Amino acid sequence: MSTHICKSKTSRLMTIIDDILKSQLQCLHPLVIGQECKHCGHNVGQNYGLSFEYIRRGLRLSHEAATRWKESCTKHVLKQKKLHLVLDIDHTLLHAVYFDKTTNHEDMEYFKILDDLIVSEKSGRIVKLRPFVRTFLKEASSLFKMYLYTMGSRRHARAMAKLLDPDHRYFAKRIISRDDNPNSFKTLDIVACQERAAIIVDDTRIWPKDEENLVQIQKYFYFADNLNSDHGYLKTRTDESQTYGGLMRTLTVLKDLHARFFKSVECRDIRQTLKLRRRLILEGCVVYVVVGDTAKANRLYEMAMKRGATCCKILNSFVTHVVSNEGGPALQLEKNVHFVNPGWIEAAYFSWERHTEENFHITPSPESTSGKRASILWPGCALILLFTTFLLCTCKRTY
Fold it and tell me: Which of 85, 106, 249, 362 has the fewest Cβ atoms nearer than 10 Å?
């Protein structure tokens, strides 16, 4: 199966190269192997065009050839009622650590009873697959043409791909590593697809050019380390939920996005589908954050806005949700406002659904207000309120 796909892709590429050559008076080196143009033999240097070495060793294409090839690959996939899906590896599909970063003999004995944990003496690593990953890949493959993309080495990427896809059903040669990417960030430029039909699933926002395509998943930590000593399911001998963990929730989102994309007659750009879907989650919520830590507050504001909420930096009568650390400072209002901890925003951000406030409810501390209550502005101050809100309320939304 994978051989047929490879031949089909090569055939489409060669047709594109022939068309480009016919339309040019002189060779502009659309196809390069190593540093040599396959048409005229000219040495173009090692940084020419875009690298697709993960598909064929030394393969580089001119920007025009790459653009046309990506368009051809996307049309081919769309005819199959599929989209492209680019998956990160580490902390998204699995957690891998070296032996010296794990713990003791007791842990090593515990590993023996886990079906989804692999100890590789050859690589010196212990790999824990994320719960639900097998089902996730199987079901996603019916809706998407999938790629693996990591900032790890090519050796690491292929080793992890072998564990995730031992029968080569899902990824074939579509395994991209830092050896294929000259940048310090990830980019869809070197993926054989158009951005309008690609979804990215990653635990990090390392896609500055393609963040519109990103579905961010919560990091999966099974093993604790010095930087994340508070994380790690191994410590408590538990694991992420199969039925409501990160991959299960993400698969639900992906299925919904796929259905919305192909149902829409007007919108044929998944980035627009993502934008519309994001803004529905917390639409109508007006959020005021008071957590003490400015960096954390800004992060929560950003997460809320990315899910459709309106965020205010000053307390006013439009606020529907006050977000505060449990037991920490929180103003009391003489109206029906939800008081929730930051988990309410984080849950909405990663699960792409609004959660009931009762599950995240906190009781405002009377001591924190020093006996003072923030009263709602009376109706006669409507104009002042609107003017103040215009000046001081961050009403900008990020979709």
Answer: 106
